[in-house]
Structures are given as structure tokens and as C-alpha cells.
Amino acid sequence: MKKQFNAIAILLVLVLSMVPVMASNTTDDFEITEIELNDYDVDILNGDLYGPVYAGEELEIEVSWEATENLSNEETEAKITVKLADEKAESDWFTIRPGWTGKERLTLDLDLDAFDLDDDDLNGNDFDIDDLERIYRLHVEMEDEDGNTYEVDNIRVRVVNQRNLVQIYDVNFPNSREVKAGEIFQANIGVKNLGHKDEEDVKITVSIPELGLSTRSDRFDLYTEEEFLEDSRDDDDFHYKLYRTLFIPIPLNTISGVYDVEVEVEYDDGDKSDREIYSLTVSSGVAPSDAVISVADTSEQMTRGKGAVYKLMFANLGNQAGTYTIEVSGVSGWGTARVDPQTVTVGADETREVFIFVSADENANLGSEDFNVKVKTGNSVVKEFDLTANIVGATASDIVDVKDGLQIGFLILLVILVILGIILVAKKLGKNGKEEEPFIEEDQTYY
Predict the structure, then answer these.
(1) Sequence-distant contacts of 392-396: CB under 8 A, at least 24 apart
(2) Mean pLDDT by 10 residues, the chain (447 residues)
């Protein structure tokens, strides 16, 4: 009985949706004369059914208007509003005068959340027999600054699922979300095609970014649900939804802790994806290092073109050596950074220091710049610091130092030039002296 009542209700809604509805208008000062949906001219006089348009995409709406000679004011401001389900767009205010005509172009984003076709709640909208689509009434309104309105409310729009839409609909972990180091992590992922286009070369990837581990499925095809229901062929590869099981071996030397697991499905030639993030606990692995890692100062001051040094200090309180790699990020936009040493090994009961040299560019903005330092063991981050560089302009003392340096350099250069001059003069005089001395050969007599 309940099913019969629901069927009658749906049929009644469909019948009513076929009856043109014109909104009540409060003015004859202006009117909407034409509406185009995605460059298609719809019939606003008798009502029209336009579509399909796809959820997740955009609907372009162009509204033509005319101000009549009956316009109360010689000049006034007006705007146009369009609504479809819970989506709304408004034009800017524009000027109208008697006899003027114009066009306004608006864009409606058909957000997936607003057009959830899996939702059984009709929300007062017409419902099509095919559950893959819904029919919504488009509301177009022109309003002036005095509150006078002209509305068109008899255009219906058929909204269907996206052309390309693959979603992760189920993820489960048969061995729970806790695994011991050295064991294999297993994930079962279910995906389905909710779009209106067959998808080729779909792939699923499971990764643990902090550990640098990932695996992916072979590529496969997903047909549309509509096609699958109409043509249930006897083919193992004919699916609109399916599961894939993926495995990731967890290395024996993994540090115990909690890690993010990313599950991603890529489709539409890799241009689109759906992603879910879960947490994984790795137990019975290598204990986190007993090293105490600290930074001497989290903030340093530096002038443009110069730098400062940040010091990391390591103290290993454990009974085994630890090797660490230091990574610096967030500096490239305003300066440069260098780590010495980049990798450091700290023995048991040993202390070590690492120096991070950071310099600001000559044209760096004045003020505070934040950057990040990660201390890693393998692919695992064991410590992270947010550091700050306070960049200032050249101070008076800097200018004096430069001036003094130039003066000293000039004096040194002057002294060198004077010495060179003396040497050259001495050489010249020496040569002249030799030329004036008579050359007398032995045993030669002059009379």
C-alpha cells in the first residue's frame, strides 16, 4: 500500500511539473524578454525543459531585459538573480532608462553537494522516474532598487550526475589498522562509477607517505551504472563498481608510531581523483630514538644580502647510535639555506651539533619570514622545528663599516700607487744616468 502511495505521489509531481508556472510580477516598468541556457534559447512564454546539465559543472545563463516607456523613474538601478535548487547567482547593479535594453550573463556552479542525486529527499523538487537525474525549476528575477520585481519561474532544468565521476565508496582493512613492523598491510578498496561516461584506465593507489611506501592496482575500466543495468553481459571485466585488494610490506626497521594512509582513485585520463585518508598504527617496530634534539634559538635577525646561523643540538641518551638527516623548507622564496652537515650520526652517550646557514636575498621583503626544519630518521620525521628569520635593512653601522672599508682600501691603493711611482721614477733616473756616462775603452787615447 505504501509503495502504491509513493508511486501515485511521484506521478502527481510529474504531472504538476508539466504545467507552466509564471511568477507573479509587481511591475510593468521592465520585463525579461529572453533567457539562454548554455547559449540555448529557452521558451519563457510557455515554459521549457532544458538539459541535461551535469552536476559538478557550470550552467551559463544569459538574461535579456527591456525597460518599458512606463518606467516610473527617469533612471534607476536594477539587478538580476538566478536560483536553481540551493545554488544562487546575482549580477551587479546596472542602470536602466525608458526604452533601454540589455543583457546580463551569470554563472551557476552546480555543486555536487547541492545536487546530491543519491539523496532520496525530494526537497520540493520534481523527481524523474530515473533515479540518476532530477528536474529542478529555474527561478529568474529582475529587481530594481525600489523593490519592484519581474520574475520568470516556468523553466525546468534536468540535472544528471557528472560526466566523469568515480568515487571511493568502501575501504576496509581485513587485519585491522594496526600492523607490526615486518608484516604486510592489506587494504580492500571499493570504487564505483557515478558518472555518465565509461571510464578507462582507472587505477587505485595506497600509500604511506611518511614511510615512502606505496603500491597501486593494475589499470581497469568502469562502465556506467545505467549501461550495466541495461546490459548485464557475461563478462568478468564488465563492472560499474568493484573491489581491489592491495598490499604494502612494512619494513622491519620501521619506527613504531601512527602514520597516515592515503587511498586514491584516479580517472578521466588521470585528470580527476577521489582521495580518503586513514591512520595506521605500526607496533613492535624500532623504538623511537632516545636522542634529545633541540634548537639553540628559533629566531635570528639578518640584513638583506647577509645571513645568520641556527644551531641544532643532539644528545643521544640511548645505547645505540642514531643517524639523522636534516631538511629545510620554506626559504627559497626569499633566501637560501645550507646545512652542515646534512646527515649526522650521533653515537651512544654522544653529543653533536648541526649548523643551518640561512641568508636573505638582496631584494627580500623586510619583516619576519618563517621556515621549517625537519629531522628525519630514514623516511620518518622524529623532530620538527618552525624557525623565523627577521629581515632588516642595512643599519647605520653597516653603512659606516662599508664606508670605512672603502676609505682604508683607497688609502692602501694610494700607497701602492705612490710606491709604484717612486720605483718607476728611480728606474728612469737610473737609465738616464747610464746614458750620460762616456764610454771609454781601455788603451784608447784622446788628443
Answers:
(1) 392/301, 392/302, 392/303, 392/304, 392/366, 393/303, 393/304, 393/366, 394/303, 394/304, 395/303
(2) 44 45 73 95 90 86 93 91 93 95 94 59 42 81 94 91 82 89 93 85 93 93 81 74 93 84 92 91 72 88 92 82 89 93 88 93 92 86 90 67 61 72 67 49 45
The torsion angles phi and psi of 310, rounded to 5 degrees, stand at -110, 135
Do the domain assignments include residue 101?
yes
Please tell me the predicted confidence (pLDDT) of residue 270: 87
* Nearest residue to 152 (alpha-carbon basis) of 66, 44, 63, 51: 44
Same domain, 172 and 214: yes
The reply to whether 436 falls in a domain is no
Name the DSSP class of 260.
Answer: E
Distance CA 240, CA 102 (A): 47
Distance between terminal CA atoms of the chain?
160
In Å, what is the CA distance from 42 to each residue of 10, 38, 64, 81, 88?
A: 26, 10, 12, 17, 19
Q: How far apart are CA 84 and CA 136, in angstroms?
A: 7
Separation CA 381–CA 208 (nearest Å)? 13
Enter the C-alpha cell of residue 68. 518599458
Residues 218 and 303 in one domain: no
DSSP class of residue 255 equals B
Instruction: Say if residue 6 is in the same domain as residue 155.
Output: yes
Give the three cell numbers for residue 161. 550526475
C-alpha cell at 45: 512564454
Same domain, 112 and 96: yes
Segment (H or E) for 49:
strand 48-54
pLDDT at 386: 93
Helix (H) or strand (E) holding 431: helix 396-436
Q: What is the CATH classification number for the domain harbouring 298? A: 2.60.40.2310
Question: Which helix (DSSP H) or strand (DSSP E) does residue 198 occupy?
Answer: none
Contact 133, 125 (CB under 8 A): no
Quote the domain boundaries for residue 266: 166-283
42 and 72 co-located in one domain = yes
Question: Looking at the domain assignment, is residue 408 inside a domain?
Answer: no
Look at the chain and report how many structural domains it folds into.
3
Contact 91, 104 (CB under 8 A): yes
